Amino acid sequence: MTAGNGNPSATFQPRSFLKNRHLQSVLASSHLMIPPHGPLRRHSREFIIETPGGSKLLSYLSHHPRSRGMMILLHGWEGSSSSAYILAAGAYFFDRNFSVCRLNLRDHGDSHHLNQGLFHGALIEETFDAVNAVARMAGNLPVYLLGFSLGANFSLRIAMRHSQTPVGNLKKVFAVSPPLDPYRTTLTIDRGPALYQNYFLRKWKRSLRKKQRFFPDQYDFAGMLRARSCMELTEKMMAYFPEFPSYRDYFRLYTLTDNSFCDLGVPVKIFFAADDPVIALDDFRKLRNHGFLTVSEQPFGGHCGFVDLFPRRRWYNEQIFEEFQQERNA
Question: What are the residues whose beta carbons fall under 8 Å from the beta carbon of 311, sequence distance 6 or more?
């Protein structure tokens, strides 16, 4: 476990009034915290990735005319390519001459109509294939993957698969606040402050209603939408996933432990905060820095926050870019 490499800026120390973990977590998704991102948007084009398995994922590619690499961004659960933290990261790296791909997971953003099947957290195959497709678009340029929350969990699993099926020119994977044990994380959301449970339930139910409107002959979520907790709704959703014997079996498919990272073939760096209100701290503290894995524990930051003001910034973006600069100067 490390807080950095002797560089004072490698420890996130926000101003005193921003040390509250709930404020950090709320600011992570606040559109008030998006920096100017006109260039990212102006260079953005929508494209749909069709995977070998027949899935379609909606993405937005901002090709930089002087690109020094491709940054692929993966949002969290019920986020999207337009989430505040995605746009902030996209603008940050585009302004520093990186091409940026903002990839939507299935049934996120405006993509509910693209696939008849429902999203679930174990859909790694299509996400891996989509990342691979974007990497090929980068040609000979280096490729980097940055994921947040559930998107960070996906990013870690993509890094694990890379050792068996290499993603073209993938150089590093970064994960911000990844849930390592989704079962425990779901329980924590349900048992914690009501704002988290209400937030995720509201967005999840809205997503399911949208899916039902596109596929009314396939889905009727009326009874399920009365669920009063994330765990209850997860359990009810298993009726649509007969391949999973139970919701516990489903959660195990994307649960990560220290042993999960033993055979990495690409450098991976995890950023997490000791005060994360959604993810259990001991899930991270069971991880060891070994081989290609580096774990950066910070005292503050909440869930995907790491936000400071004056100047307005998201600390992990600076850390990642600093690593790029060190590599360039090595």
Answer: none
Task: For tokens 């701290």, name the residue.
Answer: 281
Which residue do the tokens 């698969």 mark?
Answer: 161
Q: Which two tokens stand for residue 283?
A: 């899930």
d(CA 315, CA 215): 41
Tokens 């992990």, located at residue: 316
Q: Minimal CA–CA distance to 134: which of 122, 123, 116, 146?
A: 146
Residue 326 — pLDDT band, cuts 50, 70, 90? confident
Q: pTM of the prediction?
A: 0.94
Average pLDDT (229-240) is 95
Backbone angles phi, psi at 92, to 5 degrees: -60, -50
Q: Sign of the CA dihedral 284, 289, 290, 294?
A: positive
What are the residue ranges spanned by the domains of the chain? 8-180+257-329
* Sheet of 143-148, strands arranged across: 44-50, 56-62, 99-103, 70-74, 143-148, 170-176, 268-273, 293-298
Q: Which DSSP letter does residue 257 get?
A: -
What pLDDT, in 10s, does the model give residues 144-171? 999 999 999 999 999 999 999 999 899 9
Alpha-carbon distance of 93 to 87, in angstroms, equals: 10
Over the stretch 300-319, which tens digit does the pLDDT of each residue have? 999 999 999 888 899 999 99
The rounded distance, in Å, linking the Cα atoms of 275 and 281 is 8
Q: What is the Cα–Cα distance from 118 to 238, expressed in whole angstroms?
A: 11
Task: Copy the structure tokens of residue 49.
Answer: 């990735």
Q: Which two tokens stand for residue 40?
A: 């990212």
**Residues whose CB is less than 8 angstroms from the CB of residue 93 and which lie 6 or more positions away in sequence, other chains included:** 71, 100, 317, 321
Q: How many CB atoms lie within 10 A of CB 270?
A: 25
∠ CA(326), CA(327), CA(329), 5° rounding?
A: 65
Class of 8-180+257-329 in CATH: alpha beta
- Residues shown for the chain: 330
